[in-house]
Amino acid sequence: MKTALQWLRSLVFIIAMYLAMAVIALLGMPITLVRRDFAFRVVHGYARIVCWLAAALVGLKSEIRGTPPTGDVIIAAKHQSFFDIILIVAAVPRPKFIMKKELRWTPFVGFFAKAIGCVAVDRGKRGAAIRQMVADVKAGQAQPGQLIIFSQGTRVAAGAAKPYKIGTGVLYKETGQTVVPAATNVGVFWKRHGIMRDPGLAVVEFLPPIAPGLEIDVFMAKLEQVVEANSNRLMQEAGFTGLPPAGD
Q: What is the rounded CA–CA span in Å between residue 75 and residue 73?
């Protein structure tokens, strides 16, 4: 009975979340067409509403740890569900994402992604995609902000292993920007698929920055180690028991 009630609450939350997206987007679009920077107010407002709805409807509270960056940096984040996107957007002043190109055609999302300076990538072309990504990022550096990239390239379920893609290292080298790693445990409560949202405390933690100047292989090894170790710590803190034994 308890599980069925939580499932129903989760369904109500999902409906409310997408209704809120539609309403806020429709209200914000006309002003954004005139004042592009207004898009950041729209996405921040939406992110905070989703955090409130999650806490109120399904008991999923959220917390930001560490120091959210405010300058022109790359945020290399662990990605487990839509909720870590929401938490990062709520925490930093000018978020812009490396995103898959298909999202450009998603209602509302595509419009505001373009307005805040997101970079669309064709993930199927690998080498060409990386070159285009670097070119697009460099072209957009005149527009300040925090560039968020998910180094594993997609959502990864809590406890699952997936290699880190070299694209983050290429951006680190080619842009010369500081990288701020970000760990999370949101996948413990908000799974990649399905309706159920579990109560608990979802955390995104910004970790000490990695300064420019490392070789790509050294940088990638350091990034993976700090993000995975700290994400595992946060998941264990949340009571998750599905992590592989140390050393595996």
A: 6
Q: Which pLDDT band holds residue 210 (cuts at 50, 70, 90)?
A: very high
CB atoms within 10 A of CB 18: 11
Q: What is the pLDDT of residues 213-244, one digit of tens each?
A: 999 999 999 999 999 999 999 999 999 998 87
> What's the half-sphere exposure (Cβ side, CA atoms, 13 Å) at 95?
26
How many domains would you assign to the chain? 1
**Residue 164's CATH number:** 3.40.1130.10
- 3-class secondary structure, 199: coil
205 inside domain: yes
Q: Is the overall model pTM greater than 0.90, yes or no?
A: yes
Residue 200 lies in a domain: yes
- Its domain, for residue 120, covers 61-237
Q: List the structure tokens of 161.
A: 């292993």
- Cα–Cα distances in angstroms (integers) from residue 83 to residues 89, 105, 167, 186, in the given order: 10, 21, 23, 7
- Report DSSP letters for 7-40, one per residue: HHHHHHHHHHHHHHHHHHHHHHHHHHHH-TTHHH
